[in-house]
Amino acid sequence: MDEQKAALRRTIRAQMKALTPEERHESDEALFARFLSLPAVERADTLLLYCGMGAELDTLRLLPQLIARGKRLLLPRCADAPGIMDARVYDPSLPLVRHRYGMLEPGPDRPVVSPGEIDLVLVPGLAFDRRGYRLGQGGGYYDRYLPQTKAFTVALCRSCFLLDAVPREEHDAPVDLVLTEEETFGPAAL
Questions:
Q1: Distances, alpha carbon 60 to alpha carbons 51, 65, 95, 100, in Å
Q2: Which of the four, 56, 85, 151, 187, has the lowest number of CB atoms within 10 Å?
Q3: d(Cα 73, Cα 92) in Å, to the nearest integer?
Q4: Is this model's pTM higher than 0.90 or not?
Q5: What CA–CA distance (Å, rounded) separates 188 from 190?
Q6: What is the pLDDT along the chain (190 residues), one digit of tens a residue?
Q7: How buried is residue 186: exposed, middle or buried, by Cβ count under 10 Å (0-12/13-18/19+)?
């Protein structure tokens, strides 16, 4: 299973890099508009987002719009232990720091928020399937974090990375909702 996932990750990453900046921007715009119009986003007071990197979605563009709506925003920060993260309060007046893996995260002085306080999590992934299962980056951070929260989970997936089936293991759990540029999938979409 690990080799199958690793091969699929390499394929998806290559396809992501092949997208033009215009294709990425157009896709991001459609996905962000759909995300911001979700009733679950409107109801949520505290949201855990992530900072996309490289050819991933430019999720930093969502932050000002959500702050303007009065949302409390959190971003993940990787702990010193492998595969462990926590959710830290995002403050737009403070710079984000770059983790050794390349992603931006809040500084170590930012307050940690309990998983039980989170209403909605925007879950990253390289690819998703129609049932809500995801192919992550391979570090297991979200696999370990998500069982700690009862938050509604949403994923944004470019339609070209929506697969018929994502290889999964027994511990894998689907996100509640997968949005592509034009369609909605996952357990909460039924």
A1: 6, 10, 12, 19
A2: 187
A3: 10
A4: yes
A5: 6
A6: 678 888 999 999 999 999 999 999 999 999 999 999 999 999 999 999 999 887 789 999 999 999 999 999 999 999 887 889 999 999 999 999 998 878 899 999 999 999 999 999 999 999 999 999 999 887 888 989 999 999 999 999 999 999 999 988 887 889 999 999 999 998 887 6
A7: buried
